[in-house]
Write a structure and sequence with these properties.
By secondary structure, the protein is an alpha+beta fold. 18% of the residues lie in helices and 27% in strands. The radius of gyration is 16 Å and the shape is globular.
Length: 165
Protein backbone atom coordinates (compact mmCIF):
# COMPACT_ATOMS: atom_id res chain seq x y z
CA UNK A 1 0.00 0.00 0.00
CA UNK A 2 1.24 3.47 -0.89
CA UNK A 3 1.92 6.23 1.63
CA UNK A 4 0.07 8.75 -0.53
CA UNK A 5 -3.21 9.06 -2.41
CA UNK A 6 -2.66 9.30 -6.16
CA UNK A 7 -5.03 12.20 -6.83
CA UNK A 8 -3.70 12.73 -10.35
CA UNK A 9 -4.60 9.23 -11.45
CA UNK A 10 -7.98 9.42 -9.70
CA UNK A 11 -8.77 12.70 -11.51
CA UNK A 12 -7.78 11.24 -14.88
CA UNK A 13 -10.09 8.27 -14.38
CA UNK A 14 -12.98 10.44 -13.14
CA UNK A 15 -12.76 12.84 -16.08
CA UNK A 16 -12.49 10.01 -18.61
CA UNK A 17 -15.51 8.37 -16.98
CA UNK A 18 -17.36 11.67 -17.42
CA UNK A 19 -16.52 11.63 -21.15
CA UNK A 20 -17.66 8.01 -21.39
CA UNK A 21 -20.99 8.81 -19.73
CA UNK A 22 -21.63 11.85 -21.94
CA UNK A 23 -20.85 9.89 -25.11
CA UNK A 24 -23.00 6.96 -23.92
CA UNK A 25 -25.97 9.29 -23.49
CA UNK A 26 -25.36 10.80 -26.95
CA UNK A 27 -25.21 7.31 -28.48
CA UNK A 28 -28.65 6.54 -27.00
CA UNK A 29 -30.51 9.83 -27.42
CA UNK A 30 -28.49 12.04 -29.80
CA UNK A 31 -27.05 15.49 -29.15
CA UNK A 32 -29.46 17.73 -27.22
CA UNK A 33 -29.92 21.39 -28.10
CA UNK A 34 -26.79 23.15 -29.34
CA UNK A 35 -24.32 20.74 -27.71
CA UNK A 36 -21.37 19.65 -29.82
CA UNK A 37 -17.87 18.45 -29.03
CA UNK A 38 -14.31 19.16 -30.09
CA UNK A 39 -12.21 16.15 -29.14
CA UNK A 40 -8.45 16.33 -29.63
CA UNK A 41 -6.61 13.03 -29.44
CA UNK A 42 -3.13 11.63 -29.93
CA UNK A 43 -3.08 9.96 -33.36
CA UNK A 44 0.10 8.08 -32.38
CA UNK A 45 -1.53 6.34 -29.40
CA UNK A 46 -1.06 2.59 -30.04
CA UNK A 47 -4.79 1.80 -29.74
CA UNK A 48 -6.11 4.61 -31.98
CA UNK A 49 -7.61 3.30 -35.21
CA UNK A 50 -7.93 5.81 -38.05
CA UNK A 51 -7.45 5.69 -41.80
CA UNK A 52 -3.83 5.84 -42.98
CA UNK A 53 -4.46 9.08 -44.87
CA UNK A 54 -5.67 10.72 -41.62
CA UNK A 55 -2.68 9.56 -39.59
CA UNK A 56 -0.38 10.76 -42.40
CA UNK A 57 -2.10 14.14 -42.45
CA UNK A 58 -2.20 14.45 -38.64
CA UNK A 59 0.92 12.67 -37.32
CA UNK A 60 0.53 14.00 -33.76
CA UNK A 61 -2.77 15.38 -32.53
CA UNK A 62 -6.05 15.60 -34.41
CA UNK A 63 -9.27 17.37 -33.43
CA UNK A 64 -12.62 15.97 -34.48
CA UNK A 65 -15.97 17.72 -34.27
CA UNK A 66 -19.04 15.75 -33.26
CA UNK A 67 -22.00 17.87 -34.20
CA UNK A 68 -24.43 17.46 -37.10
CA UNK A 69 -23.42 14.26 -38.82
CA UNK A 70 -21.97 11.23 -37.11
CA UNK A 71 -22.88 7.58 -37.24
CA UNK A 72 -22.17 4.27 -35.51
CA UNK A 73 -21.23 5.81 -32.15
CA UNK A 74 -20.28 2.82 -30.02
CA UNK A 75 -19.08 3.59 -26.49
CA UNK A 76 -17.14 1.02 -24.44
CA UNK A 77 -15.31 1.08 -21.13
CA UNK A 78 -11.95 1.84 -22.78
CA UNK A 79 -12.86 4.02 -25.78
CA UNK A 80 -15.37 4.85 -28.46
CA UNK A 81 -15.87 4.12 -32.14
CA UNK A 82 -17.56 6.62 -34.45
CA UNK A 83 -17.98 7.24 -38.16
CA UNK A 84 -17.44 10.86 -39.27
CA UNK A 85 -17.70 12.52 -42.64
CA UNK A 86 -14.45 13.90 -44.09
CA UNK A 87 -15.19 15.68 -47.36
CA UNK A 88 -18.15 13.41 -48.21
CA UNK A 89 -16.12 10.33 -47.27
CA UNK A 90 -17.41 8.50 -44.19
CA UNK A 91 -14.46 7.27 -42.12
CA UNK A 92 -14.63 5.00 -39.07
CA UNK A 93 -12.44 5.95 -36.11
CA UNK A 94 -11.67 4.28 -32.79
CA UNK A 95 -10.39 6.51 -29.99
CA UNK A 96 -9.43 5.14 -26.57
CA UNK A 97 -10.10 7.53 -23.69
CA UNK A 98 -6.39 7.43 -22.80
CA UNK A 99 -5.62 9.04 -26.17
CA UNK A 100 -7.84 12.09 -25.52
CA UNK A 101 -5.92 15.33 -25.00
CA UNK A 102 -8.89 17.75 -24.83
CA UNK A 103 -12.66 17.45 -24.66
CA UNK A 104 -14.61 20.67 -25.21
CA UNK A 105 -18.33 21.46 -25.46
CA UNK A 106 -18.31 25.13 -26.48
CA UNK A 107 -22.12 25.38 -26.36
CA UNK A 108 -21.96 25.40 -22.56
CA UNK A 109 -18.35 26.64 -22.20
CA UNK A 110 -17.09 23.36 -20.76
CA UNK A 111 -13.69 21.83 -21.40
CA UNK A 112 -11.15 19.37 -20.10
CA UNK A 113 -7.46 19.13 -20.91
CA UNK A 114 -5.35 16.17 -19.91
CA UNK A 115 -1.73 17.09 -19.24
CA UNK A 116 1.21 14.75 -19.30
CA UNK A 117 4.91 15.43 -19.37
CA UNK A 118 5.73 12.09 -20.93
CA UNK A 119 4.23 8.64 -21.27
CA UNK A 120 5.79 7.34 -18.07
CA UNK A 121 4.35 10.14 -15.92
CA UNK A 122 0.94 10.45 -17.60
CA UNK A 123 -1.03 8.68 -14.88
CA UNK A 124 0.62 10.83 -12.21
CA UNK A 125 -0.40 14.14 -13.78
CA UNK A 126 -3.44 16.01 -12.52
CA UNK A 127 -6.06 16.93 -15.08
CA UNK A 128 -5.53 20.60 -15.76
CA UNK A 129 -8.38 22.84 -16.68
CA UNK A 130 -6.94 26.09 -18.03
CA UNK A 131 -8.59 29.43 -18.72
CA UNK A 132 -9.24 30.18 -22.37
CA UNK A 133 -7.24 33.44 -22.05
CA UNK A 134 -4.04 31.48 -21.35
CA UNK A 135 -4.43 28.73 -23.87
CA UNK A 136 -6.92 28.11 -26.61
CA UNK A 137 -8.66 24.75 -26.63
CA UNK A 138 -8.47 22.79 -28.86
CA UNK A 139 -4.76 23.18 -29.67
CA UNK A 140 -4.41 20.72 -32.55
CA UNK A 141 -5.42 21.26 -36.18
CA UNK A 142 -9.17 20.92 -36.39
CA UNK A 143 -10.77 18.50 -38.80
CA UNK A 144 -14.28 19.65 -39.57
CA UNK A 145 -16.72 16.78 -39.51
CA UNK A 146 -19.70 19.11 -39.77
CA UNK A 147 -21.37 21.35 -42.27
CA UNK A 148 -21.91 24.16 -39.75
CA UNK A 149 -19.58 27.10 -40.43
CA UNK A 150 -20.47 29.05 -37.28
CA UNK A 151 -17.34 29.77 -35.22
CA UNK A 152 -17.25 28.07 -31.82
CA UNK A 153 -17.55 30.15 -28.67
CA UNK A 154 -14.48 30.32 -26.44
CA UNK A 155 -14.82 27.97 -23.52
CA UNK A 156 -14.41 29.27 -20.00
CA UNK A 157 -12.28 26.67 -18.29
CA UNK A 158 -11.06 26.81 -14.72
CA UNK A 159 -7.67 25.88 -13.28
CA UNK A 160 -7.28 23.26 -10.59
CA UNK A 161 -3.63 24.29 -10.09
CA UNK A 162 -4.58 26.78 -7.36
CA UNK A 163 -5.85 23.86 -5.24
CA UNK A 164 -2.55 21.98 -5.38
CA UNK A 165 -0.25 22.13 -2.36
Amino acid sequence: MSDTIDYGNLMHRAMRTLIKEVLSDIAKTGLPGQHHFFITFDTMHPDVEIADWLSDRYPGDMTIVIQHWFDNLDVTDVGFAITLNFGDNPEPLYIPYDAIVTFVDPSVEFGLRFDSKDDEEQDAEVVSIETAEHEEVPEAPMVEATEDDAPPKDAEIFSLDSFRK
